[in-house]
TrEMBL record:
InterPro entries cross-referenced by the UniProt entry: Fungal_Metabolite_Diox (IPR051961), Phytyl_CoA_dOase-like (IPR008775)
Pfam families: PhyH
Protein name as catalogued: Fe2OG dioxygenase domain-containing protein
C-alpha cells in the first residue's frame, strides 16, 4: 500500500482541465457534440473498415482519406503485443494504490454533481514517473511510456515495437502534410464496469476547442493521427466508436454519419485521423480492456500546454 508521501497529488491537473474543457463562453465542450449526437450507446451497427496491414499503401491511404479511420489487421507481431501486455499488467498492479485513490476522488466529484463520463478529474504520479489519470469512471490514461516523452519509464523497452509499426509509418509519410513526430505514447486501461467516454475530437482542446475552432481546424492540412493498439481480444461492444467521415464534417453534419466500432484484437492497430469525432464505449465485460496508444502529430503541434504556468489569468477557473 503506497503512503500518502508516495502519492504526489496533482490537483492542479483537475483545475487545468476544468478550464481546458470549456469553450470561450464557459460551456463544457462535449455538450455541443452531445446535443448533436446524444449520449446513448446504441448497439454497434457498423464496423470501422479493416484491411490487412500489408495491403497496397494506396488502399490504406484511400480508406483513411474516405473514412478517417482504418483497422490495420496484423500490423504488429502478436508476440511483441503479448510481451508488452505482461509488462503493462505488472506496472498496473504496482499502480493499484493510485488507481484506488483516483476512484475515490472521482466518487467525491460525482457526489458534488460531476457526471461519471465527464473529462479529466485528476492525475497522480508514481515514483517511477508514470502518470495515471482518470478520464471517466473506470477509464484511465497511463503515460508517458516511451523514451520520446522523457527519460523513458519502466515500460519503455516493451512498448517500443508498438510505437511505429511499418504500416503506420508508411501511412503517416503519405498523410501528414507536414514534418511529424511521435508525440505521446500511453495506455488506456478500462476496467470492467467502466462508463463510456464523451464524444470528442483529439486535435486540440482549450477555450478555442482546438487551435482556431472547429471550422478552421477541419480545413487545416492533416496534422494529427492516432494509433490504438489493443493488448488482447475485446468485444467491439466495449471498443472505440468512430463517426466515419467526421474528419471532414463539422458539428452540424455529424448526426448523419455512420457510427462504427473498431473490431480489433492483439496485433491490429486502429489508425485514425485526430479530426474524427469518437468516444470509448462502456466496458460491460467482466475483464479489463487495455489499449496502448500512440499520438503522431506535426512537429509544430503542442497539445495541453499549461497556460496557467505562463498566463496568470488562466489560473482561475473562469475563462479570462
Ligand atoms: O477508449 C477508447 O476506446 C477511446 C479512446 C479515446 O477516446 C481517445 O483515444 O481519444
Amino acid at each position: 500500500m503506497a503512503t500518502q508521501d508516495e502519492l504526489a497529488h496533482e490537483d492542479s491537473v483537475a483545475t487545468f482541465y476544468k478550464i481546458q474543457n470549456c469553450d470561450e463562453n464557459g460551456e463544457y465542450r462535449a455538450n455541443k457534440y452531445n446535443r448533436a449526437l446524444g449520449t446513448a450507446f446504441l448497439p454497434p451497427a457498423a464496423h470501422v473498415p479493416a484491411l490487412p496491414a500489408t495491403a497496397p499503401l494506396d488502399d490504406l491511404v484511400a480508406a483513411v482519406a474516405a473514412h478517417g479511420a482504418v483497422v490495420l489487421k496484423g500490423a504488429i507481431p502478436v508476440g511483441d503485443v503479448a510481451a508488452f501486455r505482461a509488462a503493462h499488467d505488472a506496472a498496473l498492479a504496482e499502480l493499484k494504490p493510485l488507481k484506488d485513490e483516483l476512484y475515490a476522488r472521482r466518487a467525491a466529484a460525482e457526489r458534488r454533481g460531476e457526471a461519471s463520463e465527464s473529462f479529466y478529474k485528476g492525475e497522480l504520479r508514481a515514483p517511477s514517473g508514470l502518470r495515471l489519470r482518470t478520464t471517466a469512471r473506470g477509464r484511465f490514461d497511463l503515460k508517458h511510456l516511451d523514451r520520446r516523452d522523457g527519460p523513458g519509464g519502466p515500460l519503455a523497452a516493451a512498448v517500443e515495437p508498438l510505437v511505429l509499426p511499418p504500416a503506420c509509418r508508411a501511412l503517416l509519410q503519405r498523410l501528414m502534410a507536414t514534418p511529424w513526430r511521435v508525440k505521446t505514447v500511453g495506455s488506456l486501461p478500462t476496467d470492467a464496469g467502466a462508463s463510456g467516454g464523451e464524444w470528442h475530437r483529439d486535435i486540440g482542446e482549450g477555450p478555442c476547442e482546438g487551435l482556431w475552432g472547429e471550422e478552421l481546424d477541419l480545413r487545416l492540412p492533416d496534422y494529427y493521427f492516432n494509433a490504438l493498439v489493443p493488448l488482447g481480444a475485446a468485444s467491439p461492444e466495449a471498443g472505440t466508436e468512430i463517426l466515419l467521415g467526421s474528419h471532414a464534417v463539422g458539428r452540424d453534419g455529424v448526426a448523419d454519419l455512420a457510427r462504427a466500432v473498431a473490431a480489433a484484437g492483439a496485433g491490429d492497430v486502429v489508425f485514425f485521423n485526430g479530426k474524427c469525432v469518437h468516444r470509448g464505449r462502456p466496458n460491460a465485460a467482466e475483464a479489463r480492456r487495455d489499449l496502448a496508444y500512440v499520438v503522431y502529430a506535426a512537429k509544430w503541434f503542442e497539445q495541453g500546454r499549461d497556460p496557467a504556468a505562463e498566463l496568470p489569468a488562466y489560473a482561475s477557473t473562469a475563462p479570462p
